[in-house]
């Protein structure tokens, strides 16, 4: 099953992906998680990406395209993949199309999780993230069992630098300008499905699973 989980920052892609990969047994490929791991480890890629990420801008397409090409060629993608946070621009989508043609794993479906701007700001500003496993929580809507501690791996949660009000606004502007046009792009390709992401985590999971079940 070859799936893109699409939607604005804070829509709930990561939250859903963590559960979906258990159900469908395909790898979760989050470009944000990969980039943050590289920033944390101080790699060349991390050094190049950090400034853009801190400002709420997109890391250049050439960097992301190389990264995603390598990742999709790994063995665990043999039976499919769940992409989260990629593509974010038309050139990234065009490049993806070429890569997937090369490896013979074309997209089945692009699931767009639709959430209003007000809700996105509310979700992002209350988000807490695990630096170790990438799991995300919310201080009100999805709090961990032990305050400030990751349920999955026990690490201390933190607030991402880009989850502060000014940077959130910038990321939503960038989304509207550069990423949102992909909704039309994939709609024209006939593989877009829209999901109402304003409901609670369980309801959204039911809706997304309902779509993915068709491609099992
Ligand atoms: P994305 O990966 O799309 O940027 P996340 O999955 O990290 O988004 O979710 C953003 C924030 O919203 C997190 O704090 C998460 O706990 C919370 N969240 C996710 N889904 C929902 C939901 N359906 N209702 C309320 N809060 C949610
Ligand atoms: P969110 O879903 O909360 O916006 P992500 O974790 O997906 O955040 O991405 C965090 C940051 O990493 C982005 O603001 C951007 O700087 C960078 N990034 C992640 N994926 C991409 C991508 N496909 N293209 C360009 N930049 C990206
Ligand atoms: Zn964790």
Structural features, described:
This protein is of the alpha/beta class and 216 residues long. It has a domain at 2-115 and 178-211: Rossmann fold (3-Layer(aba) Sandwich), CATH 3.40.50. It is built from nine helices and seven strands, in the order βαβαααβαβαββααβα. The strands form two sheets. The chain has a five-stranded parallel sheet with strand order 2-3-1-4-7. A two-stranded antiparallel ribbon has the order 5-6. A hairpin with a 6-residue loop joins β5 (127-129) and β6 (136-138). One adenosine-5'-diphosphate (ADP) binds at residues 9-10, 31-32, 35, 52-53, 56-59, 64, 85-86, 88, 92, 162, 171.
Task: State the main characteristics.
binds adenosine-5'-diphosphate; 7 strands; binds zinc ion; Rossmann fold; two-stranded antiparallel ribbon; 216 residues; 9 helices
